Every structure is written in structure tokens, then in C-alpha cells.
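F.,

This is the one I mentioned.
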């Protein structure tokens, strides 16, 4: 249902020149082409879900992480192996950190062909890695390109959103050696591949034979030889007694001690003396190390080209709940934009409203739970007071026996004998 809806919506806008190498909307057949890694036995499990809030319960279903503090490794082959030579390369997908992620990744890797996907793990070679990564205050959008077995991160910082809503990430690499990174279809970074990544050896390097001349003067200023410290400058104190202060009339030297006026800043004190500096007439400017052509530099106009055959998730998440959806790999930027309009932009405002409704319902539920707990606590207190009153009443109703002193017979006899003697 979900896939047919999206494809039907796009039929009117799909361009004939666009070639789609991968498109995943996570319909009922998604598990048929995604391959879980068997390298570790305790990898986290994925499931398809729209989450707790959504614009459409079917269209917004995506691949969700479900277990906390787990690694995740899942991959899928592209429709066919392809090279982006002389073509734009577009990788696009949405990420929804519904769990308000504290530490974890939300990125995708593009793998070369010929990978045993059942043995895929974090050490498997990849062409590029793209997407958000958040851990506490540290957050970035990874754009890592592999060249000759080495991974090269982008040198330009790109910050991802940190809310719980769905966000769209798009990476575009062009044959003219330029790139763009879009978030929610808005350009966040753009530039030259060779400027923002260290993909090639530098064109030049510092001449190892060049040395700064011994007589090179790179000190811009010197001490003024005419400047002298004023006589008596060191005798100027930073604080002086307040000349306007007067001894209080009720001050008693015997009880209060000898009176001293309070100290104030000395207006004549201008701080520690420093010798004046003047421009150095011998100054030649900063010495710049001469550079020579780098013999290891090799121009490569195909630095943007990759042979790709698979996509993969290789993630660590402390708190699970991230939802991935609408993954697209194509050579047509316009098609990717249209796909985003129908699968992402169309539902943005509806999802925001759904989030507000969900939060309000959660707030009401928490208030009801707190009220219930408070009522239960009140009932317990009432029951305890009732039990206490009942116990007191029971003690008051216990009959008290009158104790009558009993005089033994022998005692009576002794009394009578004493009386007779008297």
C-alpha cells in the first residue's frame, strides 16, 4: 500500500532521464532484500514502524532501531552496480530521532560491489558515509569519502537538527568536483571536493632546502631607546588614604583602636610602568617559507567517481528509536527533489501537529497518573488514621476491675489480741 501510493504520486513528475539505483520506502517486502550481518550474535534488531506520532500511519512507516545500547548492522544490494562517472550522484534519506537521542548515529554507508553482506561490520571498506551523529553536546553531519583505502572526513562543520521530528538529508556529488549537503531540502554546505577534503596530496610543499636567513628581522616593534621611567614613578602608590574621610565623633581609641582613614584609588597611579615601543625600522615582515611542486601530487579529475553496489547501516545507539525512511540513490537531482516533496515536505506540518498532540496527550496522562498516585496516598493516610482511632477506642472500652483489699484471717486475730492487751 505504502510503496504503490508513493510511486503513483511520482509518476507525473518522474523525468525520463533519471536513473534510480536504489529506492526504499519500507513496504511489506522490505525484509526480502535487506541482509542482517551475522558477524555478531547480539546486534540490535530493526522493525518497521511509524513510531508514536506521525502524519500518516502507513506512509510514514520506516526502519526503526528497537534495542538500547546495541550495535546495528544491516545492508542491502543496489538495483545494480553502477559508476557515477560523468553523472551526478545523489544519496537521500530521512532520519527521525523519535527517542530524543542522547548518543548514537543516524548515517548510511555506500559500499563498493563485491561485499559479502552477511559478514558486513564496522571494518568493512566503504565508498562514503553520510548522515547525522549525535552524542551529548557533540553533534555533526558526517560526510566521509574514501580514497585509496583511507577515509577522509569533510573539513567543514555541518550541524544536524536535534529535535524529535523527521529530517531529510541529501548529499550531491557532481562531475565538476563540487558537492552540496542539504537538510530538509535547504542547502547547508557546498563547495569544492579538493578544498573541503584532503583527497589528494597537496600540490605544493615547503622547500626543505629553504631556511630563514639569520639576519631576518621579523620583530615589528622595538623598545623606544628615548623612553625613560619618570623619576619617583615607583613611589606612586595605587591606594591612598581618603583625604575627605573624618574620624567618627563616637570613635573610642581604647575600645575601637587607633582610627585610620579608609583607602581609595590613587588618581595619580596609572599602573606598572612599561617602556614604550616604536616601529622597528629594520622590520622585513613575516618570513614565508618558499614552496615547491609536490612530486607526489597527481591531478585526478575522476576523484569524484565511485563504483557502488550496496548500502548499509553500521550504527551504535545508546537509546533506540530512530526511524529511517525513503532512502534514494539516483543520478538526477531534480528527481530527488520531487521525491522529497512527495515523501517528506508534504507531511512536515502534519507531523509537527501530530507531535504536539502526542506531547499534550502524554502531559495529560502524566497528570492523571500523578493525581491517581496522590489519591492513593491520601486513601492510605485516611486508612491509617481510621486504624489508629479504632485502636484507641478499643483500649478505652476495656473494663477496669475494682481491687478490694483483702485482710487475711491471721491478721484479724493479731488485731484483736492487741486490742485486748490495751
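My design for it:
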Amino acid at each position: 500500500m505504502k510503496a504503490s501510493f508513493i510511486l503513483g504520486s511520482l509518476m507525473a513528475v518522474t523525468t525520463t532521464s533519471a536513473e534510480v539505483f536504489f529506492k526504499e520506502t519500507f513496504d511489506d517486502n522490505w525484509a526480502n532484500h535487506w541482509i542482517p550481518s551475522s558477524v555478531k550474535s547480539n546486534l540490535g534488531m530493526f522493525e518497521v514502524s511509524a513510531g508514536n506520532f506521525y502524519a500518516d500511519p502507513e506512509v510514514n512507516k520506516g526502519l526503526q532501531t528497537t534495542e538500547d545500547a546495541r550495535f546495528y548492522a544491516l545492508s542491502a544490494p543496489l538495483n545494480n552496480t553502477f559508476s557515477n562517472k560523468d553523472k551526478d550522484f545523489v544519496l537521500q534519506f530521512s532520519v527521525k530521532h523519535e527517542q530524543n537521542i542522547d548518543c548514537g548515529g543516524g548515517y548510511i554507508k555506500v559500499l563498493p560491489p563485491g561485499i559479502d553482506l552477511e559478514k558486513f561490520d564496522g571494518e568493512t571498506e566503504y565508498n562514503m558515509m553520510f548522515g547525522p551523529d549525535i552524542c551529548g553536546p557533540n553533534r555533526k553531519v558526517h560526510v566521509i569519502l574514501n580514497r585509496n583505502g583511507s577515509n577522509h572526513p569533510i573539513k567543514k562543520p555541518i550541524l544536524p537538527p536535534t529535535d524529535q521530528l523527521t529530517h531529510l538529508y541529501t548529499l550531491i556529488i557532481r562531475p565538476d568536483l563540487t558537492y552540496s549537503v542539504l537538510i530538509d531540502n535547504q542547502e547547508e554546505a557546498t563547495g569544492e571536493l579538493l578544498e573541503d577534503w584532503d583527497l589528494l596530496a597537496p600540490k605544493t610543499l615547503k622547500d626543505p632546502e629553504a631556511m630563514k636567513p639569520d639576519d631576518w628581522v621579523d620583530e615589528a616593534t622595538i623598545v623606544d631607546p628615548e623612553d625613560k621611567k619618570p623619576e619617583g614613578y615607583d613611589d606612586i602608590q595605587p591606594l591612598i588614604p581618603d583625604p575627605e574621610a573624618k574620624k567618627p565623633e563616637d570613635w573610642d581609641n581604647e575600645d575601637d583602636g587607633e582610627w585610620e582613614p579608609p583607602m581609595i584609588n590613587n588618581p595619580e597611579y596609572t599602573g606598572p610602568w612599561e617602556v614604550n615601543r616604536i616601529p622597528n625600522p629594520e622590520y622585513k615582515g613575516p618570513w614565508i617559507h618558499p614552496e615547491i611542486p609536490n612530486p607526489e601530487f597527481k591531478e585526478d579529475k575522476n576523484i569524484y567517481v565511485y563504483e557502488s553496489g550496496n548500502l548499509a547501516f553500521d550504527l551504535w545507539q545508546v537509546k533506540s528509536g530512530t526511524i529511517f525512511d525513503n532512502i534514494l540513490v539516483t543520478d538526477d537531482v531534480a528527481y530527488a527533489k520531487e521525491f522529497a516533496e512527495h515523501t517528506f515536505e508534504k507531511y512536515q506540518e502534519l507531523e509537527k501537529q501530530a507531535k504536539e498532540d502526542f506531547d499534550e496527550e502524554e502531559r495529560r496522562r502524566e497528570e492523571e497518573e500523578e493525581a491517581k498516585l496522590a489519591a492513593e496516598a491520601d486513601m492510605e493516610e485516611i486508612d491509617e488514621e481510621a486504624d489508629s482511632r479504632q485502636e484507641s477506642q478499643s483500649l478505652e472500652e476495656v473494663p477496669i476491675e475494682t481491687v478490694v483489699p483483702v485482710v487475711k484471717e491471721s491478721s484479724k486475730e493479731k488485731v484483736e489480741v492487741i486490742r485486748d492487751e490495751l
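The chain has six helices and 22 strands.

Talk soon.
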